[in-house]
Amino acid sequence: MTRAEWNPRELSDLTGRTYVVTGATKGLGFFSCDQLARAGAHVILTGRHPNRLVTARAALVHRVPDASVETLLLDTSKLGSVRAAAATLRARGALDGLLLNAGVVHPPRARETVDGNELVLATNVLGHFALAGELLQPLAAGRGRMVWVGSISTSLWKYDPVDPQLVTGYTPWRAYVQSKIAATALGFEADRRLRATGVPVRSLTAHPGYSMGGRTIGIRGVNEPSRKKRFLANLQAPVTQSKEDGAWSLVRALTDPEAESGDFWGPDRVTRGLPRRAKAAAVTRDPAIAERIWNLCEEATGVRWPFAKAARAAR
Ligand SMILES: NC(=O)c1ccc[n+]([C@@H]2O[C@H](COP(=O)([O-])OP(=O)(O)OC[C@H]3O[C@@H](n4cnc5c(N)ncnc54)[C@H](OP(=O)(O)O)[C@@H]3O)[C@@H](O)[C@H]2O)c1
Asked: What is the dotted CATH code of the domain comprising 18-314?
């Protein structure tokens, strides 16, 4: 299937491939799993609540009766949970792809995690940095790829995350946008480092435009928007899309054989549409900023990506 012909509703056969998705209990993570499973892939749904994982798995199997799917507890805001899940996944062998999707947009009142990090940064960035590093060897063994999830908000608010933990000047929105700038910058920095060290793993970034639960099919326990939410979402229909459609860019970055390491994917009409290559905000493409974020992640997580080991293991 060439780029021009890419049809997100009809993916190539992915039988025999294994993908791990964070934040798979609802939203874009759930629909990414749905699309991967429909194409025949084995999908590992991860999430922070056992009950929500059970519900999401049942909903997925209901929608895709022959889905090959399993679940794994993984709270990206807790480094202990990330390490435990990574150990389980490493024991399984090669991986084809890792979708670093879990995210908190509207943070709760508590701002700090058990590890002492700012919650939005921890959930959206630090946990994923640690997880991707911990899974570098299985990804290299599978000649797989990792996909980071960015946001168009990074083009509207171009914060340079000089204070990523937001010790001063915290607002929930700033925390969110900074976390997405950091995640996107890490996607590009990981690409540079993987190439430089000869590790056969691709690092890509994708964004879902503006995807709303209120414009998405209702699924019990997974997507149950109120009538008011649906009404308000439908008013914004010209510039929004469903989470099913929002997952297209993420899934294309994860599975298109022609998608290259360092790519940035998003909807063709920016907030909605078919997945195509897009241009990321300048602040996310600055290697000096990315290196600073990388160093912060190493320090905050204690994880150093095992580039040399992964390159050797893949030979
Ligand atoms: N929707 C958009 O328009 C949009 C735009 C730009 C970027 N994004 C990004 O896309 C990703 C998914 O967004 P979405 O719209 O699908 O959001 P969503 O519907 O709120 O789903 C978020 C998912 O992340 C999970 N999650 C939250 N905190 C977690 C944690 N500590 N550990 C593990 N999982 C956790 C949630 O699990 P629970 O069920 O346990 O809450 C849920 O499964 C996020 O990274 C978001 O920043 C979305």
From this structure: 3.40.50.720
